[in-house]
Amino acid sequence: MPPLLDGLRILIVEDEFLIAMDVEQLCRDHGAADVAIVRGLTEIDEHDLPSHFDAAVVDLMLDGVSTLDFAARLRSTGVPFVFATGYSDSDDLRNAFPEIRLVGKPFSGDDLVAALAAACGRAAAA
């Protein structure tokens, strides 16, 4: 059975350096082919998102700036993603993205990997 994230190219949108590094290692440990970290939305060329990434892990707030607009663009371009955030009680988030998995911080690595795999249509072994 291949790893859950086998071969995927994953974008991590996270402004907390240590969390971003942990998530990157987690993705690589579960088979991701490539992982890119961006700590601010200005670092992202949104026109190339679908061609460069298969999935994304998105924090709701980057330096006090909401990522909801960016998440809407991910959804419109068909890039699967999950939210990994400390703002798990956000009504704006639940109302705007009821179908998107939300993994609350602090999260376990297994929960995050399972949510990301599910978003990509991959299921964990029973």
CATH topology: Rossmann fold
The major sheet is characterized as: 5 strands, parallel
The CATH class name reads Alpha Beta
| Helicity, as a percent range | 25-40%
Instruction: Specify the CATH homologous superfamily.
Output: Response regulator
CATH architecture: 3-Layer(aba) Sandwich
Strand content: 15-25%
Give the low-pLDDT segments: none
- Return the structural class: alpha/beta
Net shape = globular
Keywords: Phosphoprotein
Organism: Mesorhizobium dulcispinae
Protein name: Response regulator
Describe the structure using short key phrases.
Sig_transdc_resp-reg_receiver, Response regulator, alpha/beta, two-stranded antiparallel sheet, phosphoprotein, single chain, 126 residues, 7 strands, 5 helices, CheY-like_superfamily, globular, 5-stranded parallel β-sheet
Structure report:
- By secondary structure, this protein is of the alpha/beta class.
- It has one domain (9-119): 3-Layer(aba) Sandwich (Rossmann fold).
- It is built from 5 helices and 7 strands; from the N terminus they run βαβαβββαβαβα.
- It has helices at 17-29, 49-52, 68-77, 91-96, 109-119; strands at residues 9-13, 34-38, 55-58, 61-62, 65-66, 81-85, 102-104.
- A 5-stranded parallel beta sheet has the order 2-1-3-6-7, with helices on both faces.
- β6, α4 and β7 form a beta-alpha-beta unit.
- The chain is globular and about 40 Å long.
